[in-house]
Amino acid sequence: MSEKWGNGTICVQGGYTPKKGEPRVLPLYQSTTYKYDTADDLAALFNLEAEGHIYSRISNPTVAAFEEKMNQLEGGVGAVATASGQAAIMLAILNICQVGDHILCAATVYGGTYNLFAVSLKKLGIEVTFFDPELPAADILKLAKPNTKVLYGETIGNPGLNILDFAVCKEVATELSVPFIVDNTLATPCLCKPFEHGANIIVHSTTKYADGHATSLGGVVIDGGNFDWTNGDYLEFVEPDPSYHGVKYVEAFGAAAYIVKARVQLLRDYGNCMSPFNAFLSNIGLETLHLRMERHSNNALEIAKWLETNEHISWVNYPGLESSEQYERTTAYLGKGASGVLAFGVKGGFEAAKLFIEQLNVAALVTHVADARTCVIHPASTTHRQLSPDQQKAAGVTEDLIRLSVGIEDVGDIIADLQQALESGGE
Ligand SMILES: *Cc1c(COP(=O)(O)O)cnc(C)c1O
Predict the structure, then answer these.
(1) pLDDT at 427 > cutoff 50
(2) Maximum separation of any 2 CA atoms in the chain, in Å
């Protein structure tokens, strides 16, 4: 049924179908455990022969409904929700990689992902090579190694706002016979469906647009069910798992092998699960995702166009602008809108940018993006202040750069706020 539904219907009703007399609204099951009548009932669950909940570290009905809604939105074969976006990325990688393995990752990824890959995974013996995503496939392939196990990128890079060239990444992943993992956080499945462009696994920080109201940390890993784990390089999916009575994931679960293993092996062992309460709140957030993404995108485009003509602004970066060098890719992959995050430069540099932020009223200075409320940050004086000028440059952070996460307020009020701040703060 839901396979025929559009984004809006899935957002509102996907993942939970009440039976006669049951609550219309997805209930919050704030319970760690589940009652069974016989030892055999429970044994069948532990043997993975029957479906049901055992313990909320592994699954919970409220979390399961949220997972299923995200899964339907992306068009996957299954999903696992996690405590945060970082936890989702970690789970997605460790379900595949172990000591001695290598990952190819787009250099433009979110700072938290960059640190996780460059520092923490390195300590686990997993090596990551960062590549310039503007390179042609042949040049990216030159960075591959015999032990390369994953290709990783983001639909919309943060804070550079580059749109991933899915065609190039798909070509590289296919050539290497490795899974292509995409972080679709800033685009959301309402604007881009990475499985339709060659992704094999999708991760999200649901802390951002999915929740949308800045109440709940969360993440999710979604399996496209479209990668061949039996190609000889991913033995954990085909050989018996000694921690699960020798289950062979591909043999037992077919196209869902990846996501079943992520849950029953890794979520069980690492415990990086989403809390039922966060799933409950995030599910309410998802009910309006389709409306919010339309509004975020429309507001951001209108503001980007207004900024382009403003005398206090030296440059504007928004992938939805026709003047953007990303525009062709934006129309190819994000036909319904380019999301709500944009960046621009204030004339007068560091001090003018700082002063500008301090004059804002509708837009609030916070370390967050993708909220219903408009958020703004001056990376050079805040998130990136510890970096040297060279490191800031490599991260795409200039002294005049303002990152604006456009909310869903009335666009006229956001523009009026920017205008008064530019007039009192800018050059
Ligand atoms: C915020 C973010 C993350 C990390 O998510 P948390 O929920 O903060 O752990 C990962 N990827 C992207 C693109 C993000 O914006």
Answers:
(1) no
(2) 75
Cα 361 to Cα 418: distance, rounded to the nearest angstrom = 9
User: Which of 155, 163, 208, when mutated, tests ligand 1's pocket best, judged by the most ligand atoms within 8 Å of its CB?
Assistant: 208
Q: Sheet containing 201-205: give its strands across.
A: 78-82, 219-223, 201-205, 180-183, 148-154, 102-106, 127-131
Q: Please report the beta strands in 86-213, taking only residues with DSSP state E, as ranges in sequence order.
A: 102-106, 127-131, 148-154, 180-183, 201-205
How far apart are the CA of 258 and the centre of ligand 1, in A? 22
What the chain holds in terms of domains, given with CATH numbers, is: 2-96+179-285 (3.40.640.10), 291-425 (3.90.1150.10)
Q: State in Å: Cα 356 to ligand 1 middle.
A: 26
Pocket mutation for ligand 1, best pick of 205, 206, 272, 341 (most atoms within 8 Å of C-beta) = 205
Q: Does position 207 have pLDDT exceeding 50, yes or no?
A: yes
Which atom of ligand 1 lies at the shortest distance from residue 185's CA?
Answer: 13
Give per-residue pLDDT as tens, 59-111. 999 999 999 999 999 999 999 999 999 999 999 999 999 999 999 999 989 98
User: Are β-strands 180-183 and 201-205 bridged in parallel, bridged antiparallel, or unpaired?
Assistant: parallel
Contact between 172 and 200 under an 8 Å Cβ cutoff? The reply is no
> Backbone dihedral region of 62: left (phi > 0), alpha (psi from -120 to 50 degrees) or beta?
alpha
Residue 3's pLDDT band, with cuts at 50, 70 and 90, is low
Is the separation of the CB atoms in 31 and 59 below 8 Å? no
CA 366-372-375 angle, to 5 degrees, is 25
188 alpha-carbon distance from chain centroid: 7
